[in-house]
Design a protein that fits this description.
Blueprint: E1 4-17, H1 21-25, E2 31-44, E3 48-52, H2 59-66, E4 74-79, E5 82-83, H3 93-98, E6 99-102, H4 106-109, H5 116-126, H6 135-145, H7 162-175, E7 180-184, H8 192-209, E8 212-216, H9 220-226, E9 229-234, E10 237-243, H10 244-249, H11 254-262, E11 312-313, E12 319-320, H12 325-330
Parallel strand pairs: 3-8, 3-9, 6-7, 7-8
Antiparallel strand pairs: 1-2, 1-4, 4-5, 9-10, 10-12, 11-12
Helix pairs in contact: 5-6, 5-7, 6-7, 7-8
The protein binds iron/sulfur cluster.
């Protein structure tokens, strides 16, 4: 039986861009970056939800909203049915423990003057996870859990490799016994062989600790490897979401099709070519009306330039935000 841990409804976030002196002199109005434009999704207990899209599409902004680093202008995020931005809950620190974020660059998120042992110990003591006398043993257990040797406790972050630093970041996140991990480009900066080790460790820990994970990444092969379900995001909107295997083998939205076809294939016999998209990713300062993908879509029809397509469940596909998804599938 599944149980919903996180529910996100119609999330929108705009950032005001500060005006240049020329803008002020010419009395031009300030510009607004529309980073998220109505994102809705849910996460089930124990699953990994992959979130993919080009850089600048809003995936990291979404991750930061979930851990309350950004507050959305519209919409709701519910954790176990509790609105995380509600006045009576926003200062509840237990949420910060239960939902932990891990970043791409652990070097900047680990204090360079603290040893790995001190970093993990700090997380255990600040959140009062164990009585003080039990903290050293728990710290040693966490190092074991992420497969770092016990002498790692005495070393500073610069003495570790990138993969080892990510293991420290994982140990620190696990120190507070979270239910949900948000992994934002967790392994993007690592070599391919190290990526596999860290990702496999994460999967093993997920099973052992029954964690729910949001895996935000632009590497589609990795996302396919780790995710039960995948959400494809384009200019701050989810355009397709569904079961990982069916979405990867049979993407329905034209953007998902182009994104997946451009990814290097794991199959050496795969000779299918990449679908070339017209034009560049539009700026989030100027999101096109209607379907934001229409300026690049080979299947656009007149209503695409006018009406925003909503995510809808389509038979034999996942949920797709495209007016013409059925026609496109028929002619594939
Ligand atoms: Fe293309 Fe129209 Fe579908 Fe958007 S709604 S992806 S423009 S066919």
């Amino acid at each position: 039986m599944t149980s919903t841990v996180m529910e996100i409804k119609d999330l929108a976030l705009e950032f005001k861009v500060s005006r240049s002196i020329v803008d002020v002199i010419r009395r031009r109005p300030g510009k607004v970056v529309r980073a998220l434009n109505g994102v809705s999704l849910h996460m089930e207990k124990g699953e990994t939800l992959g979130v993919v899209g080009e850089s600048g599409c809003g995936k990291s902004t979404l991750a930061r909203c979930i851990v309350r680093l950004y507050e959305p202008n519209r919409g709701k995020i519910k954790f176990r049915n509790q609105d995380i931005f509600a006045a009576d809950f926003r200062n509840d620190r237990s949420y910060n423990k239960r939902v932990q974020m891990m970043f791409q660059d652990p070097y900047s998120s680990l204090n360079p003057r603290m040893t790995a042992g001190q970093i993990i110990t700090e997380a255990l003591s600040v959140h009062e996870m164990r009585p003080p006398a039990e903290i050293p043993a728990r710290m040693a257990e966490l190092l074991d859990l992420v497969r770092l040797s016990q002498d790692a406790a005495e070393k500073l972050p610069h003495e570790f490799s990138g993969g080892q630093r990510q293991r420290i970041a994982i140990a620190r996140a696990l120190a507070v016994e979270p239910e949900v991990l948000i992994a934002d480009e967790l392994v993007s900066a690592l070599d391919v062989s190290v990526q596999a080790q860290v990702v496999n460790l994460l999967l093993e820990l997920q099973e052992r600790l029954n964690l729910t994970i949001m895996f935000v990444a632009h590497d589609l092969r990795l996302v396919r490897h780790v995710s039960n379900r995948v959400a494809v995001i384009y200019l701050g909107r989810i355009v397709e979401i569904g079961d990982s295997e069916s979405l990867f083998s049979n993407p329905a939205h034209p953007y998902s099709q182009a994104l997946l076809s451009a990814a290097p294939s794991v199959d050496p016999d795969d000779t299918s070519g990449a679908i070339r998209l017209e034009g560049e990713l539009p700026s989030p300062l100027n999101v096109p009306p209607g379907c934001a993908f229409h300026v690049r879509c080979p299947y656009k029809t007149e209503n695409c330039t006018r009406d925003i397509p909503v995510l809808r469940l389509i038979e034999n596909m996942g949920e797709v935000a495209c007016h013409n998804a059925e026609e496109i599938a028929k002619n594939a």
